[in-house]
Structures are given as structure tokens and as C-alpha cells.
Amino acid sequence: MIKYQLLFFIPLISTVLTYPAGKLIGDKAAQYLSSGLILAASLLSWYLFIQFVQGSDIEFIVPVLDWLLISGKFFNWGVSINSLTLLMLTLVLTVSALVHIYSIEYMSHDNSKTRFMTYLSLFTFCMVALVVSDNLIQLFFGWEGVGLASYLLIGFWHHKKSANLAAMKAFLVNRVADFGFLIGIATLYICLDTLSINDVIAQKDKLYQIQITFLGQQINALVFACFFLFIGAMGKSAQFGFHTWLPDAMEGPTPVSALIHAATMVTAGVFLTVRFSELMVMSDFVMTFVLTIGLMTAFFAASVGFFQKDIKKVIAYSTCSQLGFMFVACGLGAFNVAIFHLITHGYFKALLFLSSGSVIHGVHDEQDMDKMGNLFTKMKFTAIMMWIGTLAIIGFPYSSGYFSKDLILSSSFNLNQNGALVYVILAVVSAMTAFYSFRLIFKVFHGNYRGEYKYEKIHESGFFMLTPLFILSIGAIFAGYFLKDIIAGNNLNDFWRGVIFIGSSEHHYSSMFTILSKSLVGLGVLIAVYYYGFQEVKLLQLKNQFRSIYLFVLNKWYFDELYDKIFVKPTYNLGKFLWKNIDQGLVDRFIPNGGAAIVDKISKKIKRIQSGFIFDYTFIIIMGFTLFITIIFYTSIA
Amino acid sequence: MTSLSYNHFFILSLIIFMIGCFGLFLNRRNMILILMCIEIILLAANINFVSASVFLNDINGQIFSIFILTIAAAEAAIGLAILVIYFRNKGEIDVTQINRLKD
């Protein structure tokens, strides 16, 4: 059992030890220490995963510590081991370990290396706590913990104002969604009097029969709880409406973007939805909502990714779009496919981000793609890695994206009525993905160099940055091939063992549709290659011709401006009004300042008594004495 | 009509005493006023003595008041004499300047 507990404790040990170790044995050694610890945890997770797959346990819960006692019930730290959590753990710990190693070199010029490593380990610990949780309290702890780590890491370069603002934005947007998550948890607790995830799932029929009154409406408790749990998931996974924080989060260092804002934390929403899949499928409304949100996000983010200039923002929007794909799979009832895409996406998106980090490192912290170009000759290895990641994301045959994305596309025929529509949207979005991914490749690695930084000085990254890239590229190429049979093959029940909901896998799917989607993707690639590889002048003409559409897309559909008008400005003005008029104008003016003024006035009057002349004091003494005698006299005769 | 009690006389003497005191301290310039206030204070004491002697049936109080009257007269005479000499030297009776006498 200790090996399961170790999974939980190794990241915590790394969190606690890294900073003091940095003071004692030097920054470099502390970086090696934390990387080594997380690497050990990731190897352990793979060992446990393989052991679990070969064994036959359905699920077991390893208690770690007693935690809270609320109205006679314990909520404990525990490690819940089943196929879903172990699969997630391998992804989280592997990517985390690689990012730790990558950061050794990437942050080598930074002054606070150990702080960075501490935050990374803190994030890993919270993510592990989230994933392995067997109750909703611990899950919520992990949920908030990764949010905190994300906040700290986005704002890591705290001297940059934009980084601070982005960190705050991420935290606040997540807070809104987390409120929904809390409502979901509270509903489950009130209705079922338990927060253990397994108990909740076991009592789903009971939950389905409970009606609750909300705003004068009778609503089914299960629908209500699932809806608000999904609101929480939307915030974490940056879905349509809550997506605004994710692109801004790219202010953080690139390893952070790879770990938190691509591979692991943002997929926590998908993980949550899948963890409660048994509940989700009972409500048609929630499933349709999930599907709609997923589709909207996938399309929206892909369209915004078209013309972004910042290399990281393109990848950020593509993350957002791929998360939409995962939710589409959830909404279609193909939860195993969602997890499959989550895993493969984790590998190839981490690869893309770390490669772009290598590029940014090479061209001396330049992120604008307009100032890159023709980097292929300078950094061949990174370029090849980026190519592999891009081929994986567009679903090049037999790369990992090919398997997972195709499964999502074919799952759209789980729906009877609108399956074809969903399919077409997904195919179009795939083509858009192909377009902007190849646009990135061509702008960065091919064509002519347009930057200001000296071309001769551009250099390939070193060993510590390229090794994680290489390992991730293996994942990006082969993860789909090896995991397909396990997660979504014919014998998928041997792996899942009833932990998540598995729908019927009979598709009305013909190979025609594969050809359609693949040819659309190919078209997207060709357009990107044509315009960005050879005909940039024509592209400019097109941009001028459709200037309004171009600006609309470039400005992210004006979402930030809209939110600024609806939420930020009124809140800001309300805060300013309360500050200026209520706090300063009313409370401060009358209570502290007014009180002080009264005391001041009285003391000014009273201090006249102390004139310093002896006859004044004599006068007061005699008067007092007379008064005193009189009082004594009257009290004695009374 | 309620009969006069010792209280009434006590309060009367208290009021007169207070008037004397206030006069003494609030006016710090005019020496004649100071002398008059001292007289008033002494009179207040006298009233107290006499009334107490009446209500306690003790003649000593009234004898004492005669002593006080004589002493008050003597004191007023000395005070006025100083005042006259002071006025002759200085041409004013401002008490605030009286410390110059030592020069």
C-alpha cells in the first residue's frame, strides 16, 4: 500500500524540500532534486499502471490521513486507484517530470529557479490529489490547489504588469466557475448526505427521484447537480464563455503553459465530467449542453487561432479547441474516447508547447511569429519535434491524434438526429486546426527570417530541453496506437471495469466519412502551405478584402471587450463608487476622522485649564476643595 | 412657611464664599477688588460661625466672629495703606506689576 501513498507524497516532499534545498545545496542541485523526485513518481505511476492493467482489481481506496470530521462523517485524504485515475496519473506525472527536467535549462537564466520548481511541484501535488481523490472535498482541494499553482505560475514574472493581470484574470474567471462547482457539491451533499464519489454514483437512482426547488422552479436534483458540476468543469477547461483566461495565461513561462495550460490542469474539467459520467448520462439536458458547449468552443477557438501573432497564443487557442473536442466526446456519451483524446492531446500538446518554448529560448524571448521564419536551418531538432506535434494534432495517419480524433468524429453518430451535423462541424474544425497549425510551422520554421534579433545568434537548445521533447514525441507518435486497444478497442471493458459509463459502440459509420474529414484536413493543410509558404502577398490582399471578418477573428470575437463592458467596468465603477463615496466619503469621514475631530476639539477646550499660572491652579484647588467639603457635609447629615 | 434651618445659612455662606473666590481669581488686576473679595470671604466665614453658634447653642462662635471682624478691619487697613503707597510710587494699582517692588 505504501507505494500508492508514495504517489501522493513524493510531489509533496518535492514541494517542501526544493526551496530549503536551494538555500542549502545550491539552485542547480535543488532543480535536480525536484526533477528526480517527480521522475521517480512518474516511473512509479507507470509501474502501478502496468500492474493494474495486468491485475483484475476493479477499484480500491488506500487511506492516507484522517482529515475532516463533519457532522459525524470523516472526509479523509485517500488514494482511489482505478483505471481512470491511474491513466490520468501516468499522463500528469510523466508530463510533469519532463517539464521539471525541461525547466532546468529553460529557467537557467532566471534568478528564482527554486521558487519555480517549488510551484511546479506544488502543482503536481495538487493535481495528484485531485485525480486520486475518492471524495469531493479532496477533489475540491486539488481543484483549488491547481488553480492557486496556476495563479502563482502565470504571475511568476511578477515584475511584468501583464503577467500580474493575466494571473488575476485566470484566478477570477476560475472563481466564478468554481462557485458553480461548489453549488454542485453542496447539492450532492444535501440530497445524498455523502460526498464519497463512489457512494454518489451508487445512489444515482435515488438522486434522480429527488426534486429541488430553485428560484421557484422544480428541478431534478441530478440534473441540477450535474449542470453545476459541469459549470465548474467549464471554468477549469476554459470552455466557451469562460475561455478568456487561457490565452492570457500564456504570460507565464513556457514550461508552465505546457504542463498546466495544455496537458494537465485544463483537462481537469474533462476528468471531472468523465468521473461523474454515470450521473451525466442520466440527463439528456446536461448531455446536450455539454455537447453544445464543446462544439462552440471547438469552432470558436479554432477560428480565433487563425490569425494570432503570438506563437504561444496560437497553441493556446488550439488547446481550447481540442478541449472542446473532448467535451463533444463527453456530450456524445463516448467518455472513454474523451479520456483517450485527453491522453494523446496531453502528449502532443505538451510537445508543441515545449518546442515553442525551445524556439522562444532560441530567438531570445521573442514570441511574435512575424519576427521569426526560416528557423529550420538553425534548430533542426526542435523543428522536427514541432512537425511531429503538428502532424499529431491534425491527425496524420497513425500518429496519436489520428486515433483519438477519428474516434470522436465517428462517435458523433451515437446521436440519431443531429449526428451528421455534429460530424460536419467537427470535420470543419479539424480542417481549421490543420490550417492554423501549418500556418505556425511555416511562419516559424520556413520562409524568410523577418526578426530583429541577429540571425547568426539563434541557437538550438541544449540537452535538458531536447530530451523531454524527444520523449514526448514518442508519446505523440505512439500513444494513440498503443492505447487505442486498451481504452477504446473491442475489449475496453477489460480495462475500464465499469468505472466510467461506456455507451454502445455500434456506429452507423462508413469509411466515406473518414475520407471526407481527412480530405478536409488535407485541404486545410494545403491552403496554409499555399498562402504561408508561397503566396504571402495574395494573403495580404485577401486580408484587406475581408477586413471586417479578419479583425473580428483577430480580436477574438471581441470577447474581452464584451466582458470588459458587461462585467469588468461596472464592477470596477461600483468598487470605485463604494471606495470613494461610501468608504472614504461616509465611513471614514464620520467615524474615524469625525471621532478624531471631536476629540481634538474637546481637548483644545480642556487644555486651557492647564494655563501654567499658579493662581489658576489655586483657584481650581479651592473650588474643588469647597465642592468636596459640601458633598461630605451633605452626605454626612443625610 | 418652612422655618429657617442651618442648611440655609450654610448655603448662603457658601454662595458668598464662592463669590469671593471667583472675584479673587477672575480679576487679577485691581488691588481694591482683591481686598474687597477677601473681605467677602471673611464675611462668609463669619456668617458660618454665627449661624453654627446659634444652632449649636455655643457662644464661642459669635465671639470668634467679633475677632474676625477686628482682624478683617486691621487687614483692610494694612492692605489699603500698601495700596496708597503703591499708587503714590507707581501711579497705578495693577497687581500684575507688583513684583517690581523688589527692584
Number of helical elements of chain A: 27
Structural class determined from secondary elements of chain B: mainly alpha
| Rg over C-alpha atoms of chain B, rounded to the nearest angstrom | 17 Å
Total beta strands of chain B: 0
> What distance lies between the first and last C-alpha atoms of chain A, to the nearest angstrom?
88 Å
Strand order of the largest sheet of chain A: 1-2
Biggest β-sheet description of chain B: none
- Shape, principal axes of CA atoms of chain B: elongated
Taking Cα atoms only, what radius of gyration of chain A do you get, to the nearest Å? 30 Å
**Strand-and-helix sequence of chain B, N→C?**
HHH
Task: Please indicate the count of domains of chain B.
Answer: 1
Low-confidence stretches of chain B: none
In brief:
The complex is a heterodimer of chains A (638) and B (103). Chain A has helices spanning 2-25, 27-54, 83-106, 113-132, 136-154, 161-192, 197-202, 204-209, 221-236, 245-248, 254-263, 268-275, 277-280, 284-305, 311-331, 335-362, 380-394, 400-411, 419-445, 463-488, 492-496, 511-534, 536-545, 547-554, 559-590, 592-606, 614-637; strands spanning 60-70, 73-81, 211-214, 217-220.
